[in-house]
Amino acid sequence: MNLRELGTTGLKVSSIGLGCVTFGREIDKATSFNILDHALDRGINLLDTAEAYAAGESERVVGEWIADRGVRDRVVLATKVAGSLTRDRVIESADESLQRLGVDVIDLFQLHVWDDETPVEETLDALETLVQQGKVQHIGCSNWSAWQLAKALLLARDSGAARMQSVQPPYNLVQREIEADLLPLCRDQQVGVLSYSPLGAGFLTGKYRPEQEIPGGTRFDVMPGHQPIYFHDHGWATLERLDAVSAETGRSLVQLSLSWAIVQPGVTSVLIGCRNTSQVDQAFEAEAAGLADDLVSRLAGDAG
User: Fold this and answer.
1) What sign does the dihedral 11-171-131-159 (CA atoms) show?
2) Domains observed in the chain
3) Is residue 183 classed as helix, strand or coil in its secondary structure?
4) How far apart are CA 27 and CA 211, in angstroms?
């Protein structure tokens, strides 16, 4: 397990982070505790949750685990505020998250999505207030474009306020939009990248195929909004390349996809979502196996 600095914070986070979206939603408290125990034992120290995950239940589960195990000083705790980003709402959300998590300070408080209705200056002022109050150590954003992050960085520079130390985008073999401008911006400005969805919400596991019925109960069945993101020519071509490399190497589509995401330059930590401890292990196996440069290029369609 590699430890990497998050932005310019001085915080060292694990190259594999634990996304806690399944806690209290798809798995119960006992299973969540087992996963958290196993992740910590294996060296994961970055825990990423949000108020929007299971209506706050994910935060409660994480907070109860931290208190029960007495491990607050061993984890970097990240959460997010969703929806409206007015000053009052941002501060209220942080207070509510602190209560659910049962901690005095949030290590990384992130804006879950961009808010078109609220001036970003107002939002950043609220975040600065939280930092000054000692409730939040560092700030970040999630699902922001390069221009949105650049604007926030410029405003922070000009005002002397807390700057965005991280951005959390989806990044996998199909969703590679951040390579054009967000990744270069983050490298240039020393902003951490916490990528998520390395398996494309399950698309890169091979369970979905063109002209085949979507399996009932799967994420693409329950949340059909995923379909247009992946069900297109580029997505199917990516699966074909995965199939070919898998056949040649004997490695699974899951391991190849995870390895590809983990070795990407400029990514600080790859967040994985888990329903069981074996999914923690498979990420570590993918990191340990690595991926040769020629396979990185072939999987991405950058080489013949």
Assistant:
1) positive
2) 3-200+261-291 (3.20.20.100)
3) helix
4) 31
Strands 12-14 and 3-5, by their bridges, are antiparallel
- Give residue 304's pLDDT: 47
Cα(202)–Cα(274) distance, integer angstroms? 12
Active site residue 171: no
Query: Looking at this protein, which amino acid is placed at residue 51?
Result: E
In terms of Cα–Cα distance, which of 283, 204, 279, 208 is closest to 245? 204
Going from the C-alpha of 252 to that of each of 195, 242, 244, the distances in angstroms are 21, 9, 11
Mean pLDDT by 10 residues, the chain (304 residues): 93 98 94 98 98 97 98 98 97 98 98 97 98 98 98 97 98 97 98 98 93 84 86 96 97 98 97 96 97 96 70
DSSP letter assigned to residue 23: B
Element (H, E) at 14: strand 12-14
Rounded to the nearest 10 degrees, the angle between the axes of helix 87-101 and helix 57-69 is 40
Q: Residue 211 is encoded by which pair of tokens? A: 């002209």
Q: What is the DSSP string of 126-169?
A: HHHHHHHTTSEEEEEEES--HHHHHHHHHHHHHHT-PPEEEEE-
Q: What is the per-residue pLDDT for 162?
A: 96
Query: Under the phi-then-psi rule, with left for phi > 0, alpha for psi from -120 to 50, and beta for the rest, what region is 65?
Result: alpha
* CA atoms of 276 and 222, how far apart (whole Å): 20
Q: pLDDT at position 224, please?
A: 85
Pick the catalytic residue from 53, 171, 208, 230: 53
Rounded Cα distance, 205 and 290, in Å = 18
- 72, two tokens: 């607050």
Model pLDDT, residue 147: 98
Give me the pLDDT at residue 303, please: 57
